[in-house]
Amino acid sequence: MQQIINFIIRYKNLLLYILLMIISLAFTIQSHSYHQSRFFNSSSWVAGNIYGFSHSFNTYFDLDDENERLLKENERLRNKLFNTTTSPSVEVDSSLRYTVISGQVIKNSYADPRNYITINRGENDSISQDMGVITDLGILGIVENTSNKFATVQSILNTKSNINAKIKNTNHFGSLIWDTKTYNTVQLIDIPRLVPLNIGDTIVTGAMSSIFPENIPIGTIKKFDLDISKSFYKIDVNLFNDMTNIKNVYIIKNLDRKEILDLEEATSNE
Amino acid sequence: MNRGIPINIIRFILLVLVQVLVFNRLNFFGFINPMVYIMFLYWYPIKEKRAVFIGLSFLLGLSVDFLSDTMAIHAAATTTIAYLRPAIMRFVFGINYEFQSFKLSNTTKAQQFTFLALLILVHHSVYFSMEIFSIANLLLIVKKVLSNGLASLILCLLFSTLFSVKKE
């Protein structure tokens, strides 16, 4: 007994180091396999407020640019509105599938292998996990953690990200992943070899996802190659979004999501 | 060391804030983010209790992690250099760092430089190995360690000259 205590006293620094190392490794490895730990993310109250505070200063520096962008978007939407012939009955459609909530990015990152974006909307604004986040140009990511006033978004520039996408005007779909190399390119895999592809084709979100609506723009084809199995394409996609410069975002809530998930679960349990 | 405690607390908070609000957003060439909070370990008094030092370093790393969504990678890297700091100091300054009269400001510029460079090298090696987490990407790890390490070293040297403890 005496010897054990002596041993502990003698190597207490080493033991402390090993203990702390195991704690940090556990946190890291656990979040490699599943959603981030509830406590270690910037949607928390303290972190959210620090970033919110710095955001309130930073917003003043690019008000002009942001106004310009919003004006452009309004112009495009108005063009669409005036050129579609809608009957009044469509406008009071009760079968609403999506609601959109606007928000602002208060912390962005794009240089790590696993990037997260923090936005200034949270549970108080009825944001919950697994809602899609887009900008006026294209998709941005999926909500991962929420607090009362803030939420973290798993960016598409994240090795854990896996989003259903397809080639515009076809029904060939694949998965959108990121190889961590550059922040303006993501990869689309599992597109069969028989699909005719051209450089410059547009990639949009697919209909298989219960998170994003169909046909939200993602990017254009930069180059494509066959993968190792020689039966699927691996496509480099140039993003429409400039991931380094994002301010205003829209969070999409799919009102049918719960019903879809319940149905899928019931089917797979049979 | 009564005077040392408030100074270290202020240093702790300021370095974390500077790191997450300024240097984590630098993204020089798209991926270079210098880590200046290592200066806390460089400046921390030598004769304090080692266990407290390791615990504080863990907290420092965890605070940075907490604010930059990196799980606990910063914490692991910072704890490692906190634990290895006495060994590094013995290597750089020789046996005489254990004497009562030893002061960081009394050592030569070359010694200070080597000390800082070794701290950064070990820290970044642990950090990027854990961040990328695969041996297959060894080349990427080396590239990131070297490029980020160089940037951190330059900025830390600037910090150490700018806020140097007054010469006696």
Automatic annotation (TrEMBL), chain A:
InterPro entries cross-referenced by the UniProt entry: Cell/Rod_1 (IPR042177), Cell/Rod_MreC_2 (IPR042175), MreC (IPR007221), MreC_beta-barrel_core (IPR055342)
Entry keyword set: Cell shape, Membrane, Transmembrane, Transmembrane helix
Coiled coil: none
Transmembrane region(s): 14-34
Domain Rod shape-determining protein MreC beta-barrel core: 105-253
UniProt cross-references to Pfam families, sorted A to Z: MreC
NCBIfam families, per database record: PRK13922.9-3
Family: Belongs to the MreC family.
Protein name per Swiss-Prot or TrEMBL: Cell shape-determining protein MreC
Species for this entry: Maribacter aquimaris
Protein's gene: mreC
TrEMBL record, chain B:
Top-rank lineage group of the source organism: Bacteria
Matching InterPro entries: Cell_shape_determining_MreD
Localization in the cell: Cell membrane
Positions of transmembrane segments: 28-44, 73-93, 113-139, 145-165
Keywords: Cell membrane, Cell shape, Membrane, Transmembrane, Transmembrane helix
Chief location bin: membrane
Keyword presence, Protease: no
Keyword Membrane included in the entry's annotation: yes
Residues annotated as signal peptide: none
Membrane topology recorded in Swiss-Prot or TrEMBL: Multi-pass membrane protein
Family: Belongs to the MreD family.
Protein name as catalogued: Rod shape-determining protein MreD
Source species: Maribacter aquimaris
Origin organism lineage: Bacteria, Pseudomonadati, Bacteroidota, Flavobacteriia, Flavobacteriales
